[in-house]
Design goal:
With 957 residues, the protein is an alpha+beta fold. The protein has 4 domains: 205 residues, Calcium-transporting ATPase, cytoplasmic transduction domain A (Distorted Sandwich), CATH 2.70.150.10; 254 residues, Calcium-transporting ATPase, transmembrane domain (Up-down Bundle); 162 residues, Rossmann fold (3-Layer(aba) Sandwich); 176 residues, Calcium-transporting ATPase, cytoplasmic domain N (3-Layer(aba) Sandwich), CATH 3.40.1110. It is built from 35 helices and 26 strands. Strands 12, 13, 14, 15, 16, 17, 18, 19 and 20 form a 9-stranded mixed β-sheet that branches. Strands 10-26-25-24-11-21-23-22 form an 8-stranded mixed β-sheet, with helices on both faces. Strand 24, helix 25 and strand 25 form a beta-alpha-beta unit. Helix 27 runs parallel beside helix 30.
Length: 957
Amino acid sequence: MRAAAFTVRRKIKFEPQETIQPQDSGVDYPDYVVVPTCCGLIALYRSDLEGSSARPHKDMERKAADDAQRSASGSRTATPVHALGADAVLALLDVDPARGLGSGEANARLQSHGTNEIQKEEPIGLLTLLLRQFISPVIWLLIAAAVVATIFGEVSDAIAIGVVLVLNASIGFVTEYRARRSMDAIRTLGQTRSRVLRDGRHQTISSRDLVAGDIVLLSAGNVVPADVRVIELTSLQASEAALTGESVPVEKQVAAVPASAPLGDRASMLLKGTAVTRGDCSGVVTATGMDTELGHVTRLMMGTPDAPSPLERQLQSLGGQLLWLTIVLCALITAIGMLAGRETFLMIHAGIALAVAAIPEGLPIVATVALAGGIWRMAQRNALVERMAAVETLGSTTVIFTDKTGTLTENRLAAAEVWLASGRSSLPVRGDSVGLRELLETGVLCNHAKLSTEGEGTGDPLELALLHAARDQGIDVEELRDGWRQTAERPFDSAAKMMLTAHRSDGEARLFCKGAPERLIELACSNLTADGDTVAMTADMRGEWSRRADEMAASGLRVLALARSVDGDSKGSVEDVGDLALLGLVGFQDPPRHDVEEAIQACQDAGIRVVMVTGDHIATATAISQQVGIESKTATGIDGARLDQLLQSHDGGQLELREANVFARVTPEHKLRLVEQLQAAGEIVAMTGDGVNDAPALRQADIGVAMGKRGTDVAREAADMVLLDDSFPTIVAAIAQGRVIFENIRRFVVYLLSCNLSEVLVVALAILFGLPMALLPLQILFLNLVTDVFPAFALAAGRGDPDILKRRPRPPSEQLIGAPEWSVIIRYGLTITAVTLIALVVAVRGLGLDAAEATTVSFLTIAIAQLLHVFNMRKPGSSFFVNDVTHNRWVWAALGLCCLLLALAVYVPWAAAALQLMPPSPLAWLLIIGLGITPVIAAQLFEAFELKNTRSIVANT
């Protein structure tokens, strides 16, 4: 018979490996049987046992190795490698763990499967990015107007329109220009070196040259360079927070785990990007490059394009509406004018003017400045925004998916509770007791961690938490360790589930032990009483201690038991345990941040649903959610297995998904699908995260929020906003700022569109009534880019309503400019149109001015009316003299600047010549000013009348 693989047990000593910065292996395997022999376990092909003369060909074995590596595209129905024994996996990959792969075989596999690298998404070229700025119907309309102006010899108009096009394209290019670094950040994680066993000797090779079947050697401080099935280990522990969201390091084992185990429970695997925090091991590479979990996340990100924000979509929709309005209006006016016998050249000139008037050229500029101002204010509050539109998007958020570890919690383990014979208590405990002191002293002595002078320290997070708890209870850690000198140690391992240390003090020898509650409760022969005595452990006592451990675990704590040898019963040998006395249980948790509960309450008051999405255990997630005040209609959250069922149901499990606000043991796919589900239901989704596993959902969400302190490069590059302080309350402040920005944008869009509507109507009606051109194209551009823009800038800088977070979020379907806003736009547009046409008629027929002088009167009248129109943009119901607009110093500065620019346009010869303006007479100025202030007075009278009617209706009801 042919032995496919065998195992040799040996003591592992590894040299340090370079530290570097993860998919389910569904594989088709040949039939095999694992049988015991004198040499250990041997994996044999079933055909060998059945006496078949046909033995597996080398190509078949190669195919098995190929299949073992193929995770992303492999069959999900076959047994995954984490559910197979280590010997079986070695057999499948055709590798001897004592020698590793041969160099020739490794090179062949490298040629066949490619390097251990992550694919890079091709970035958008600068030229493509620039050309994209011109892919807009509104831009096409302006280009058409410029071409027509050039054909008919209106060079100045064409140049002015060209300047506007270049300005808009420049703004769009600059705001969109951000390097696509997400894929680069992921790819660089694997560009290091790894220690492997090849040709029977240890070698250090580039991590990019790893192949399936390589035997890799890892120790504490390393980060795994590929997906690895553990073969042998010594006290192995790995931190998987960046991959699974698990808040504490995970103990690893050689034994297989169930095939259905979620990613965070695959204790037999080490996955690319997860850090080894304790111990050492050897393992066999089962997946490299894009077939690793990291590669799977990359595929998800590459398949998740950046979606336009709600604001961008609404501004695009508004642009489309303005385009059709302009086309219809230009065609209608031109046709009517020609039918009325007006000159063709005049009608073409009027068409150009209408096209320019209908488009608010200043809108992109003002929107950019408004968002940039929001970015600056948010940066002052530790929120760094990379994508401008994300500022407003956060303000329209209806659901926040938040990670648990580090966002809602402090991202550190702390000893939260103890359960002694005297009862259960929270730490720190007031006063002192023999039982508590003994328990904490044991935690200090059976411990490798060290506290620094600053109080932080280095070592296993759980051991550090024990040291902090002891120090907080008044125990001098260093003095205690000096008094009890350690003489021997039995390190923690996953089989024994405990750690033992032997100590001596003044001739007395004692063992101290910590480990899994079930293990120590089973081993302990006695337990410590509240008085400090020891009593024999009975079956009832064991049952009671087991119940206590289960109760603590159910409340979301990670539970550890501590014990020591009975006085005088130890010979100082870790191999001879003797009579252990159980001291009690310690419960650890990642404590909630102190300011999170208030911030979550503020979100809920603002009508925003807060949902915890974590890779941690369901009990831990549920406990933390209750502590921070996340509301949920379900008693517990939904774990990954149940979430799979809901997502596969015909209705997507919508009701249960809406009622549960805690999701635990979730994968990157789960997070991505949850975001997609809610977006499909019309929600505006914000997603927070810090790990590689969060990146696809961060990119898919309407706004991705990454952590700045502990977040990975991948998460930060996939997000729209980075929290510099990793604080959830910072998100709440950003939401308030986003809502203010939206209100400001809506306000200045109403202002700009009412001004543009008046310009369109003035030009169109003057043509229809046989009057001179009321406004020339260049004059309209001057109005749109100068006298309209500066007041709009001032409105964009408003501080907003201080009670804005007390409102419900606006419905996602609500338009930026809806029916109420169009009503205001039409009302004010008609009023400004009326006074401008009256000024034009009086100038021509009352004052007897020629066409150029009359056009100057209409230009200045509409300019002043539009400037004063800014006071109509105050909050409804507020006083005319005391309101958010009159208190805005930028409004007064804008009005002063615009008045100066108008004076220069009229009285500076070269400017007046370019705009075809003439200095008005004193009588003309009286006409201009008198009619220019009329719209703002009329607006106040109309609002007073409307308010009186409203009060009358309320009184009658």
